[in-house]
UniProtKB/TrEMBL annotation:
Residues 533-626, 657-741 form the 3-hydroxyacyl-CoA dehydrogenase C-terminal domain. It catalyses: a (3S)-3-hydroxyacyl-CoA + NAD(+) = a 3-oxoacyl-CoA + NADH + H(+). PROSITE patterns: ENOYL_COA_HYDRATASE (PS00166). The gene is fadJ. This is enoyl-CoA hydratase. Residues 351-530 form the 3-hydroxyacyl-CoA dehydrogenase NAD binding domain. In the N-terminal section; belongs to the enoyl-CoA hydratase/isomerase family. Belongs to the enoyl-CoA hydratase/isomerase family. It holds the Pfam family 3HCDH_N. InterPro entries: 3-OHacyl-CoA_DH_NAD-bd, 3HC_DH_C, 6-PGluconate_DH-like_C_sf, ClpP/crotonase-like_dom_sf, Enoyl-CoA_hyd/isom_CS, Enoyl-CoA_hydra/iso, FA_oxidation_alpha_subunit, NAD(P)-bd_dom_sf. It comes from Archangium minus.
Length: 746
């Protein structure tokens, strides 16, 4: 009976046990899931299988391998963490995970982890407890501890095992950033012992397990191996900031880790850099650093205890809850086709045409070729424009080669997919045309006609416009049901969001096809309904307007930017204005005012700034200086062009931040109430991934719920009384407060 129960549990958790030539091969393939995840039940079954292997005298070693096509173990089951209500419960769960992997660590027979696909979080902690690790050379294989991205820390021994394996500084580079590494980098770090072709993974893992058991294979891991690999990468990421090493300094740094004074310098510097980066808004990296420090200075047992305690605190923290909610929101979006009908299938896009060779056009050409993997034809009005687009794409590929994320051969093959010209040659067989030309309706109508004359009947026309309604664009088309908006964000190859805009006549198959294209291009995709400014441009407009009002009130430029960075935005509004282009913002203003009236009227504070030809970064003349110095400073001469001149006022930083942020939140609520947004979830994802709304606050709607819709209404009414109708609360917010509702279910 006990044996039958055990078999049922094994099957439920997806484990199979098979002995091959004296090696027990444990295959993990969680039923009904695309990836393997770790849960307490999984751990229990794995432990029972280890016991079985230990008691079997014919078994000399164990191989642990995944049965999934492209996944080893993608981490802990997040759903399980959401069931935890208290820090004490989470701490207990962490200790159980630690104890399970400690048992694996102490297992008397060699255990080999055969890794193919994502080996992340708890999956990597699992592999770290094995005696030997082999990874495939597949691009699908990645290793890392991304817990900090969910507001957590590794909770099953990762903060202790990783530093012990690859060195403190190399481990911090992974733990504090949450970044993943490819197999080649993992080998250099000492994270894995071998990298092999995928087809021979299982065969070789069994052989290595047997060799370890027979004493034919001795594992030697050089001291400082991981540190050396990070040093070779240069000053990249947080770890690079902490290191900044040359190979000559390497061994001195290795010795530094063993020196109490040196360790203090190391951890003090790391803490300083963390505070600068997180501004105290994200506690997880600091807790991870402290867990590592305690383990190094006070021993493994103390480190594990600290890890479990910190993990428990973080699981129930508001920051982690918001970040986990974002994770689930983006995961849900990946499964959707962007329409109300889940049965609508996307059509295959075999070739993409891009109109416009500027920064946006070049970026779109890159993601289409590099990630979507299809041929791209770029058209611009002259050879110089085509050349700029091709040069931009090549530059991004060159950067990837320099960072070793792509070989020269792979780069050349991808670049060969991109061609260009000044005519419509090559557009006959494109399935999707993405237009990224100047924001002029007449020009876009002319281009739509030209495109429809040379493309096949099912070709989709997508506009990258950020302000012109798609409904108006569709009026210039003979096939309006195939006109849609695909709003990318600059720089396209780095910004994660794609905002797709549908008008009332857009065909569902067109929407589903463009959503699928966006996913293949590596984007987080939201679909919104048509309207001036759509969603992201619309909620950004009052935010930027309020920043201009603050300048008109005499605000110090640096203090204004600092106030919004302290609130949680990645950059301040004036820095953003310089990056986007002061002239671009000025052109969007009248469109918004025409659509929404006085509440969207931009102050005249910036008119003299524009009149003097200050465009921002693009002509190295804006609110900040662009003289090649690493640190930008405010160009003090710009104050002469502002209403108060050099007579700046000391404004309250909290009020400055709140005035700008609440404008964005209030406009987001309007978009939801008017049906531009399909859900609060999409609004939060769009604001975070497109505009940098602070992730730890969860987005405009999570933020509104956290302070309470009633309190949001009170604050808006306060500013309305003080500054006028631009702070008029969204009608749907007023109704929500009357009804006692929230944006998300309580």
């Amino acid at each position: 009976m006990a044996a039958m129960i055990a078999q049922e549990l094994e099957a439920k958790q997806g484990f199979t046990y098979q002995v091959e030539d004296g090696v027990a091969v444990l295959v993990f393939d969680l039923p009904g899931e695309s990836v393997n995840t770790l849960s307490p039940e999984t751990g229990e079954v794995f432990a029972s299988l280890l016991t079985r292997a230990e008691k079997d005298p014919t078994v000399k070693a164990v191989v642990f391998i995944s049965g999934k096509k492209d996944s080893f173990v993608a981490g802990a089951k997040i759903d399980f963490l959401q069931t935890i209500k208290t820090a004490a419960e989470a701490t207990v769960a962490s200790r159980q995970g630690q104890q399970g992997f400690d048992q694996l660590d102490a297992f008397p027979k060699p255990v080999v982890a055969a890794i193919h696909g994502a080996c992340l979080g708890g999956g990597l902690e699992w592999a770290l407890a094995c005696d030997y690790r082999i990874a495939t050379d597949s691009p699908k294989t990645t290793l890392g501890l991304p817990e900090v991205q969910l507001g957590l820390i590794p909770g099953a021994g990762g903060t202790q095992r990783l530093p012990a394996l690859i060195g403190v500084q190399a481990a911090l580079d992974l733990i504090l950033t949450g970044k993943n590494v490819k197999p080649s980098k993992a080998k250099k770090l000492g994270l894995v012992d071998e990298v092999v072709p995928t087809p021979i993974l299982r065969q070789l893992a069994v052989r290595r397990a047997r060799e370890l058991a027979e004493g034919m294979l001795k594992v030697e891991r050089p001291r400082g191996q991981g540190l050396k690999a990070v040093a070779q990468q240069g000053k990249k990421g947080l770890g690079g900031l902490l290191l900044g090493l040359t190979n000559k300094e390497l061994w001195a740094e290795v010795a530094l880790e063993d020196n109490p004074v040196g360790r203090k310098i190391l951890f003090d510097q790391a803490r300083k850099q963390l505070r600068k980066k997180t501004r105290g808004k994200y506690p997880a990296p600091e807790r991870a650093l402290e867990a590592v420090r305690i383990g190094v200075e006070s021993g493994r047992a103390a480190g594990l205890e600290a890890e479990a305690r910190f993990f428990g605190e973080l699981v129930v923290s508001d920051v982690s809850k918001r970040l986990v909610e974002i994770f689930f929101a983006t995961t849900a979006l990946k499964k959707e086709n962007g329409t109300a009908n889940a049965d609508v299938k996307p059509r295959e896009v075999k070739k993409v045409g891009v109109l416009g060779g500027g920064l946006m056009g070049g970026g779109i050409a890159y993601v289409s070729s590099a990630l979507q993997g299809v041929p791209v034809r770029v058209k611009d009005k002259d050879d110089a424009g085509v050349g700029r687009a091709l040069k931009q794409v090549q530059g991004i590929y060159d950067e990837r080669v320099k960072k070793r994320s792509l070989t020269w051969r792979e780069s050349a093959a991808k670049m060969a997919l991109v061609t260009g010209g000044t005519g419509y040659e090559g557009f006959k067989n494109v399935d999707l045309v993405i237009e990224a030309v100047f924001e002029d309706l007449a020009l876009k109508h002319r281009i739509i006609g030209e495109v429809e004359a040379v493309t096949h009947a099912d070709c989709i026309f997508a506009s990258n416009t950020s302000s012109i309604p798609i409904t108006e664009l569709a009026k210039g088309s003979r096939r309006p049901e195939q006109v849609i908006g695909m709003h990318y964000f600059s720089p396209v190859h780095k910004m994660p969001l794609l905002e797709i805009i549908t008008h009332k006549g857009t065909a569902d198959w067109v929407t589903a096809t463009c959503v699928e294209v966006g996913k293949k291009q590596g984007k987080t995709v939201i679909v919104v309904n048509d309207g001036p400014g759509f969603y992201t441009s619309r909620i950004l407009a009052p935010y930027m307007n309020e920043a201009a009002h603050l300048l008109a009130d005499g605000a110090d430029i640096a203090e204004l930017d600092k106030a919004l960075v302290e609130f949680g935005f990645p950059v301040g509004p004036i820095t953003l204005l310089d990056e986007v282009g002061i002239d671009v913002a000025q052109k969007v203003g009248p469109i918004m005012e025409a659509a929404f009236g006085k509440r969207m009227t931009a102050p005249r504070a910036l008119e003299k700034v524009v009149a003097e030809g200050r465009l921002g970064r693009k002509n190295k003349k804006g609110f900040y200086t662009y003289d090649g110095k690493k640190k930008k400073e405010v160009d003090v001469t710009v104050y002469e062009l502002l209403p108060h001149g050099k007579n700046r006022k000391q404004l309250d930083s909290r009020e400055m931040a709140e005035r700008c942020a609440l404008q964005m939140v209030n406009e987001a609520v309007r978009c939801l109430g008017e049906g531009i947004l399909r859900s609060a979830r999409d609004g939060d994802v769009g604001a975070i991934f497109g505009l940098g709304f602070p992730p730890f606050l969860g987005g405009p709607f999570r933020y509104a719920d956290s302070i309470g819709p009633g309190e949001l209404l009170r604050r808006l009414e306060h500013f309305q009384d003080k500054y006028g109708e631009r702070f008029t609360p969204a009608p749907s917010l007023v109704e929500m407060v009357k009804a006692g509702k929230t944006f998300y279910p309580r």
